[in-house]
Write a structure and sequence with these properties.
The structure holds 2 protein chains of 2 kinds. Chain A is 49% helix and 14% strand. Chain A is α/β, with parallel strands linked by helices. The two termini of chain A are 27 Å apart. By secondary structure, chain B is of the alpha/beta class. In chain B, strands 3-4-14-9-10-13 form a 6-stranded mixed β-sheet, with helices on both faces. In chain B, strands 1-2-12-11 form a 4-stranded antiparallel β-sheet. The chains are: A alpha/beta, B alpha/beta. At the A-B interface, helix 3, helix 5 and strand 6 of A face strand 2, helix 1, helix 8 and strand 11 of B.
């Protein structure tokens, strides 16, 4: 069990806690703030961090993450810069898993082999490509396997049972269940409707399930923690970061935002 | 048209099951859309072999679109070029003024067969938006068209046409505020409303099965042209010329000729201020393979893999990617791709208007400009067939503005 993601879920399972998985866009609001923000996320109780790699055409994202991506690109944040951030983060935090989340083209431009090698060396544990279903991963998949970087896969409300099986066979680490049909940050989450599809999904996989899209605060996080091993929070967190004026203020904001969510999730698990 | 339907539609070069043309094409979308694309694929491949479906499509093309469109010998344009005979495939005479209607009629029919009540579309120049709003009006379906804010300003006439047709035009203000961003936004709508919504993509790009489906619906252009050439000239043309943004009019003309290896095929991309200016939209001439909008294809991106902003005087060609089958045809050498600048396209626009009394769309003017250049280098007994993909009424404001005339 070399991958930090597996290690983290195993440790959580022992204590009966759920994974809090915040998403932040690398380089938003400022490039130099990202590493301090990542550490603040950990201090506030994050178990795994999804670090967004900015892309010019984020087809699956809502307006909040679109704007964050655009800003990060203006701030000069490329995939190379994101890997530098992870490297820097790892000097002080050797244990918290990092999953890069983004779109395929920047990875391809970097080069599959070069990316897998550099990502593993920097301390990246997983890669979630929103626009690359398992069927199209091909050679990149082989390179990730070779370097021990997990492909993290999405499952959606529209995913058929046949596809659940295909995806489960390909996935490592955890499965990311998209809570509703829509884009990130939309307000359509109905946590009570999650139990049935998650149960169906569990018939195909023993991996932990994380739920994302539409989780905005303690209440929805706790509700999701009642049915899934992990809770992903992205747009609401990015929004909280938006109006901050210094890295310290941003870190404080992150802590203030996540701490009650962590507490609500832990209460739910008890 | 019975001799052109059914078996004749099952075209020679097909992608694999997942929509790959060699290394290009495929299905690069988020998981939420995978099932919708699977459904669409099943429906399309089923209905495209159904006699009743094809008969309805043919009837719509004949009685609603006004097909066949003629092939016209442009005598004075030929004289001005001074070489091969220049012929025009008059897609500009179609209902709504461009080839785009061939595809939207087909996809709307499919939407009907699939029981979808809501239609969405993206548009650049507005031609595809108008064509989508048109078929939605005719079938009584709700229609939302996504259009970049920049394009809304330069194509205000088409925006008004769409609204008259009952469509809601939603302005897209993200990214470069042009066609690519409209496509992103339409995808976001589709992912949200996937149950009742049919997304009519306007070009031969996007995830499988769109590149195949849009090509097939437009291939009526090439099938007709082939038959007309044999009837009128007892010969196939020596060269086919068509403009390429996403590439639907070009592929519609080219595809039925792919097996006729003696016929050259030239796609004309928008070179904007020049292929080396950094301000153009010529992904096949100056781009490289990557993944955008659901498929692997040639595209324009920077070293970090970010999609670049493109430039063309013509909104319909202002797109950083291109259909994957074109990428395949380029690599295989079966088709050639060249660039025509804004200035050259404007010259083509004026030549055709003044010499033939035909006002071309600025997109099509790119093909006219290159077709004339090519004809000049050929013998008088040879023939160049240019796809005049659309008419230029929508562009008069743009042309006036470029020439400093206020209307």
């Amino acid at each position: 069990m070399n991958n930090r993601i597996d290690q983290r879920f195993a440790a959580l399972a022992e204590t009966g806690r759920r994974a809090l998985i915040p998403f932040v866009t690398a380089g938003y609001p400022e490039a130099e703030w990202t590493v301090p923000i990542l550490h603040a996320l950990v201090r506030a109780g994050a178990d795994i961090i999804e670090l967004g790699v900015p892309f010019s055409d984020p087809m699956a994202d809502g307006p909040v993450i679109q704007v964050a991506s655009e800003r990060a690109i203006v701030n000069g944040v490329s995939l190379q810069v994101v890997l530098d951030m992870v490297r820097q983060f790892r000097r002080e935090d050797p244990v918290t898993p990092i999953v890069l989340m983004g779109y395929l083209n920047p990875v391809e431009r970097y080069g599959n082999e070069a990316f897998a090698g550099d990502a593993a060396a920097a301390g990246v544990d997983g890669l979630l490509l929103v626009d690359c279903p398992p069927e199209e991963m091909g050679e990149l998949r082989a390179r990730l396997d070779q370097h021990g970087v997990f492909p993290i896969c999405l499952v959606a409300p529209t995913t058929t049972e046949a596809r659940m099986e295909t995806i489960s066979q390909q996935a490592r680490g955890y499965l990311y269940y998209v809570s509703f049909k829509g884009i990130t940050g939309a307000d359509r989450l109905d946590a009570s409707a999650l139990a049935a599809p998650l149960a169906r999904l569990r018939e195909h996989t023993a991996l932990p399930l994380a739920v994302g899209f539409g989780i905005k605060g303690p209440e929805s996080a706790a509700a999701v923690a009642g049915v899934a091993e992990g809770v992903v929070i992205g747009s609401a967190l990015i929004e909280a970061l938006g109006a901050t004026e210094s890295p310290d203020a941003a870190c404080e904001r992150v802590t203030g935002f996540l701490a009650p969510i962590r507490a609500a999730m832990d209460n739910e698990a008890r | 048209m019975s001799n052109e339907s059914a078996a004749g539609r099952l075209l020679a070069s097909e992608p694999d099951d997942q929509g790959h043309f060699g290394p290009y094409g495929g299905t690069y979308v988020s998981e939420t859309l995978m099932h919708a694309l699977e459904e669409l694929k099943e429906a399309y491949f089923r209905w495209r072999e159904d006699e009743e479906f094809l008969a309805r499509f043919d009837a719509d093309l004949a009685h609603y679109v006004g097909r066949p469109s003629p092939i016209y010998f442009a005598r004075r344009l030929t004289e001005a070029a001074g070489g091969a005979r220049i012929l025009l495939k008059r897609e500009d005479l179609n209902h709504t003024g461009a080839h785009k209607i061939n595809n939207t009629v087909g996809q709307a029919l499919l939407a009907d067969y699939m029981g979808k009540t809501r239609i969405i579309a993206e548009t650049g120049a507005g031609q595809h938006g108008v064509a989508s709003a048109t078929v939605a009006a005719r079938l009584g379906k709700q229609c939302v068209v996504y259009m970049g804010e920049v394009d809304i300003h330069r194509q205000s006439i088409n925006v008004f046409r769409m609204r008259l047709l009952g469509a809601e035009v939603r302005s897209v203000t993200s990214g470069s505020k042009t066609l690519k961003d409209a496509l992103n936004e339409a995808m976001r709508d589709w992912v949200t409303n996937v149950d009742d919504t049919f997304y009519i993509i306007g070009t031969v790009a996007g995830p499988h099965p769109y590149p195949v489906m849009v090509r097939d619906f437009n291939a009526v252009v090439g099938r007709e042209a082939k038959r007309q050439m044999l009837e009128q000239y007892d010969a196939l043309p020596d060269v086919l010329v068509a403009c390429v943004g996403g590439g639907s009019n070009a592929l519609g003309l080219f595809h039925p000729f792919i097996g006729d290896t003696e016929v050259r095929m030239v796609g004309v991309e928008a070179a904007g201020d020049g292929l080396h200016s950094g301000r153009h939209a010529a992904s096949l001439c100056a781009g490289r393979p990557g993944v955008l909008h659901g498929c692997r294809t040639y595209l324009m991106d920077d070293d970090a893999g970010q999609i670049e902003h493109t430039h063309s005087v013509s909104a319909g060609l202002d797109y950083p990617g291109v259909g994957p089958e074109h990428a395949f045809l380029k690599d295989s050498g079966r088709a050639e791709y060249v660039g025509v600048t804004d200035v050259e396209a404007m010259e083509g626009f004026h030549q055709l208007t003044r010499l033939e009394g035909i006002l071309p769309a600025l997109e099509s003017a790119h093909a006219v400009a290159y077709g004339m250049k090519l004809a000049a280098s050929m013998r008088p007994d040879q023939m160049v067939l240019i796809n005049l993909s659309g008419r230029g009424d929508k562009d008069v404001q743009t042309v006036a503005a470029l020439e400093g005339i206020s209307l």
